[in-house]
Automatic annotation (TrEMBL), chains A, B:
SUPFAM superfamilies: lambda repressor-like DNA-binding domains (SSF47413), Periplasmic binding protein-like I (SSF53822)
GO molecular function: DNA-binding transcription factor activity; transcription cis-regulatory region binding
Gene3D superfamilies: 3.40.50.2300, lambda repressor-like DNA-binding domains
Source domain of life: Bacteria
Keywords assigned by UniProt, alphabetized: DNA-binding, Transcription, Transcription regulation
Name under which the protein is recorded: LacI family DNA-binding transcriptional regulator
Coiled coil: none
HTH lacI-type domain residues: 6-60
Pfam family, one: LacI
InterPro entries: HTH_LacI, Lambda_DNA-bd_dom_sf, Peripla_BP/Lac1_sug-bd_dom, Peripla_BP_I
Amino acid sequence: MSKRHVSLKTLAQTLNVSISTVSRALRNHPDISAELTQKVQELAQELDYSPNPLAIGLLKHQSNTIGVIVPDLVTYFFSSIISGIESVANEHGYYIVIRCSYESAEKEKECLDNLLKLRVAGIIMCLAQETQDYAHFSNLIEEQVPLVFFDRICRPEEVSTVVVDNLEAARRITRHFFESGYRRIAHIAGPAQLNITQERIQGYQQGLAECDLAFDESLLVHCDLSIPSATEATRQLLALPVRPDAIFGVNDTTAFAAMKEIKRQGLRIPNDVGLVGFTDEFHATVVEPTLTSVMHPTYEMGREAGLLFLEQVNAQAAPAPRQAVLTTQLVIRESSVR
Amino acid sequence: MSKRHVSLKTLAQTLNVSISTVSRALRNHPDISAELTQKVQELAQELDYSPNPLAIGLLKHQSNTIGVIVPDLVTYFFSSIISGIESVANEHGYYIVIRCSYESAEKEKECLDNLLKLRVAGIIMCLAQETQDYAHFSNLIEEQVPLVFFDRICRPEEVSTVVVDNLEAARRITRHFFESGYRRIAHIAGPAQLNITQERIQGYQQGLAECDLAFDESLLVHCDLSIPSATEATRQLLALPVRPDAIFGVNDTTAFAAMKEIKRQGLRIPNDVGLVGFTDEFHATVVEPTLTSVMHPTYEMGREAGLLFLEQVNAQAAPAPRQAVLTTQLVIRESSVR
DNA sequence: AACCTTTGCGCAAAGCTTTGCGGAATTATC
DNA sequence: GATAATTCCGCAAAGCTTTGCGCAAAGGTT
């Protein structure tokens, strides 16, 4: 760090005025004469003065950093959401500090603690898969620390959230399968405690009902969102006495793992088994057959989360928590139409 | 923020001792009696005291945040490197603040300025594609601000860098094509000013030479690493009077764009055209045919960058810049063997 | 010419931490 | 019992910024 940055003190000494005068001049305070103001501002410009955010943070008890916690840094889903958050943050003079929970509840708590110790302005996060106990958010909520959940959420009555229309999307997928002639429609779901899992299962069941298809428990299997687990789930489905003719995967990892396993068993997509996933555009179009999928507006989710966050930061009183529900789009490609 | 955190002052008042005594007690200073030390530490524990990093930063002129600048947040390559950086940072009590240059030289400079104004401890970054002028790093270098470049680098005599064995990898690819029977081997290269482009072109030419193949200028085309540009480059190659029978793409985006375009023109991979890219594992195995590719140890690159950074931070004197060269691995799959 | 209002600037505190130095009280020494 | 040496703790400054308050000089008023 060294003596890189000049401070108000430097400016003041150079101009032979007091520090407070310099401070006021830089903020165009009317108490300071026009000519002195100009002289100060010119010198500040010349010496590349920038106020020390540490000092300001200390004084004002506020910070311009947003803590962001994701279960995983590497997948497209999260990195594009981060990208959205970063863009909003940047536009409003905020910086994002990223930590990864690696889907662990314990690590999530640790990340949270650490970021709070760092004195971030608040937290934007997606719950870890493992997290089932939501008590560690109580303090934050009570103390009105700005907090936004996205995708995997909890306590929505108390915390602002950004989600997609999971139920509706799952319903549409199911109906799309039906309309394409598929009748034994399976669903590889995520961990049972996650809101996204529950909502998508509900949509799946609702879709089945609307198509007058009975819900068959054996066609609903859970996985932990990892590739091996999704592969295993697919195997389980394909080993059923009466094989499903369509599979709807809960996310992109699941869908691709399923695709590989289906192919490995010598089955053809979409003829033998139809396949749909929640994915991002790039992946879905590069595989063969191209994958029908529900597009998450991930970048927009990130931006929306950022905006909800800023809303809380800027509010003098604590604003009522808001629920942003973004709409997904079912993009029909080769894998689900025969 | 509010009154969330207790300060030394609170502890001192509660115990009726001075702030400095509390400070010393917490750091086990021998001047403080054992019993008082214990009392202080117990209270601190109870009240969940954590020292304010803003105050410490102000006092010691140092920070525990690392500025990270990437050209793109979304691609696997960068997000997995970020993941590596984050893990090292975390292990050593540092936090990473991420900014995105969107491949723009101007934005890159802006990110750099902003992060320095935030008083980060230093910068880990990958150059934007557009960046051709490296003058804005001179200040940092002179003032010995910890700085590490990865992948796309400049001024390696002055700055620590993390790269892969680009030349060697490109040479291996070329020879692999030759050994698989390909003879008109084309290369879709990146922007000419990037070190990675230059090194891979050199490796490509060296490989050709070793196989007694003449270098044909028309088989070397540049793209800007975007999908449309890579598609266009592929088109250009395939439209040549004598079509190449093998294409080596400079990165994953390029390789996949090429794959799509080759297929679109009704050509078969690997029979009509062999294809190899620099990619990550997941993408490469999910496409059809599976893609032979050079695997970047991306996570390791991130970790290495983090370690080189910490080396600079912890050194009292400025350490000599170090060049970490990680080795890639050529993973042969279906797309390059007929 | 005496008083009042502006105008223009500085003092000092607060926010939190670390640390050199000084000082009071206790113990040891002669 | 007086002096020297410990032991244990507090004062204050530094790091940087903002802001309420006070104060001097200048100008205006009668």
